[in-house]
Write a structure and sequence with these properties.
three-stranded antiparallel sheet; alpha/beta; about 40% helix
């Protein structure tokens, strides 16, 4: 396995299966690598803690950095190379300039309208879109693999790629297709990986103290309660809009009750349209009811946890 620290070294991996990460890898990240292997693509992993997606009060400086362990995990999972760029490589015109440019980005609707992560972390998705677009341009993957654990991020990146592809083809027609294929890979969503007790794997779980883990399980337990209610709705033939509205409200109430029982500070606990992540519109065309997604963000002391299902 090769360690790449310059853009020149990336040329050999064009058309790869790309797994962008910030390091501190866990089994969820390694499963993304294994998925690329199963898809028959050489997995290229990037490890870069991106400063432009952190607000000044967030945990950039203390975000776990475990490169030696990460390298061993990537190699065991089947990665062919790890791209470990510096800030200077990623943002050659300087970090301050990059931070200003991030503020000017036109973000996809799902990065601005849901009032979920976009409300709790207002500058976050600008930095995410900036760094992912830069990585795609440098690495030129055929497919890029993202976990569903950060579900709004997954939808933001998917929508960013869709918009980029549509705009390029509209502007240049067939001539844009080669460039489009180079810079806008297929986004492959991968299911959340959980510990045996149900806790979704996250690099930030290492912040949890042993006695806090039981309380952290409130997120997955809240999701299970919501899913039980929503599954009953889906089993109803020709359920009315009123029945659906009541089921969604009951699911949200059940999540909040479970989170409060675990003494978690709730930021949001909602059921949304799984595509737009906006509140569910039941009476709008098409009449086919939308797929639903329950999403939670909550704090346990200084640790912020998210989950969905």
């Amino acid at each position: 396995m090769e360690i790449v620290d310059s853009t020149e070294g990336l040329a050999a991996f064009k058309g790869c299966g790309f797994v962008p990460t910030m390091g501190a890898l866990h089994e969820g990240h390694l499963e993304l690598i294994r998925k690329a292997v199963r898809d028959g693509l050489p997995p290229l992993v990037s490890i870069f803690v991106n400063p432009t997606q952190f607000a000044p009060h967030e945990d950039f400086s203390r975000y776990p950095r475990t490169l030696e362990t990460d390298v061993r995990g990537c190699e065991a999972a089947g990665a062919v190379a790890i791209f470990v760029p510096t800030v200077e490589t990623m943002y050659p015109r300087g970090l301050a300039r990059a931070q200003e440019e991030a503020k000017l980005l036109q973000l996809p609707p799902v990065a601005m309208r849901p009032r979920l992560e976009d409300a709790c972390r207002p500058t976050h998705f600008a930095g995410v879109c900036q760094v992912v677009a830069r990585l795609f341009d440098l690495c030129q993957p055929q497919r890029a693999y993202f976990g569903e654990k950060d579900f709004q991020q997954l939808r933001v990146i998917t929508q960013m790629v869709e918009i980029s592809r549509t705009q390029a083809q509209a502007a240049c027609g067939q001539a844009a297709r080669t460039q489009d294929e180079r810079c806008t890979p297929q986004i492959v969503p991968c299911p959340t990986v959980r510990d045996a007790d149900g806790l979704a794997l996250s690099s930030r779980n290492r912040y949890l103290q042993p006695h806090e883990r039981e309380r952290a399980l409130g997120l997955s337990r809240a999701l299970r309660r919501a899913q039980e209610i929503l599954q009953q709705l889906q089993q109803q033939v020709n359920a009315t809009d009123d029945a659906a509205t009541k089921a969604i409200a009951a699911a949200e109430a059940a999540m909040r009750e479970e989170l409060e029982r675990h003494q978690l500070q709730i930021e949001y606990a909602v059921v949304r349209d799984a595509s737009s992540l906006e509140p569910v519109q039941l009476n709008a065309p098409p009449r086919q009811p939308p797929a639903l997604r329950a999403l939670i963000a909550a704090r346990l002391g200084a640790v912020r946890l998210i989950d969905n299902g």
